[in-house]
Design a protein that fits this description.
single chain; 231 residues; alpha/beta; Rossmann fold; 2 domains; 5-stranded parallel beta sheet; 8 helices
């Protein structure tokens, strides 16, 4: 999943970036309100983590502008303000949740997961495709009862494919949701990770990961497929 972190405190931002990336999220980071509005307009994010006290435009203004543009992305606001009227202002500007500083990193990541679960396509905790089981809370996967030894990026890629099982996912969509803005579109990183997943997920079994030539990739039970141009 791809997140946007809007935080101008360099020390806190570094801590949050490391923590969120360790959880498997692709995270873009900006430090002021104007940049946040631009990023939210040009990229597709699954959650925005938004500080209130920002240069140029504060978090309330950023949140209101994102909503004015009819962007439904879930927004978690961070602030040192703990007065009731500040929490109300944040929610009224369009935020979905509100976390007061100082906070525990485990609580922040739990709230991010909770926001993701509110999205209809993100709802299942456990996803089953044929004999593959993906546990989104435990960030683990099994095939035919055997645990798969996946790296963080391999797991994130597999989870995204599993959440959209049966649908062809193009390279652009994978880049938007699995990689951050530092991804080089001219590398073959996606192909490399797909090949790694195939070796671990399929491993001599009926293939679940399929390539649609010229279109993208799909995770699907082969028993349900009737597509001669899928590999």
């Amino acid at each position: 999943m791809r997140l946007l972190l809007v935080e101008d405190d360099a020390r806190l931002a570094d801590l949050l970036l490391r923590s969120l990336r360790e959880q498997g999220y692709a995270v873009d980071h900006v430090t002021d309100g104007d940049a946040a509005i631009v990023q939210a307009a040009v990229n597709s994010y699954d959650v925005v983590v938004l500080d209130v006290q920002l240069p140029k435009r504060n978090g309330f203004e950023v949140c209101a502008e994102i909503r004015r543009r009819r962007n439904p992305v879930p927004i978690l606001m961070l602030t040192a303000r703990d007065a009731v009227h500040d929490r109300v202002a944040g929610l009224d500007s369009g935020a979905d949740d509100y976390l007061t500083k100082p906070f525990d990193l485990t609580e922040l990541t739990a709230r991010v997961r909770a926001l993701l679960r509110r999205m209809p396509e993100m709802a299942p905790r456990v996803i089953n495709v044929a004999d593959l089981t993906v546990d989104t809370a435990g960030q683990s996967a099994q095939r035919a009862g055997h645990q798969l030894a996946l790296t963080t990026k391999e797991y994130v890629l597999l989870e995204f494919l599993a959440r959209h099982a049966g649908r062809v996912i193009g390279r652009a969509e994978l880049v938007e949701h699995v990689w951050d803005e530092n991804h080089d579109p001219f590398t073959n990183a996606i192909e490399v990770y797909i090949n790694r997943l195939r070796k671990k997920v399929d491993d001599g079994r009926a293939p679940l990961i399929h390539t649609r030539r010229g279109a993208g990739y799909m995770l699907a039970d082969p028993a349900t497929l009737n597509q001669p141009n899928a590999d």
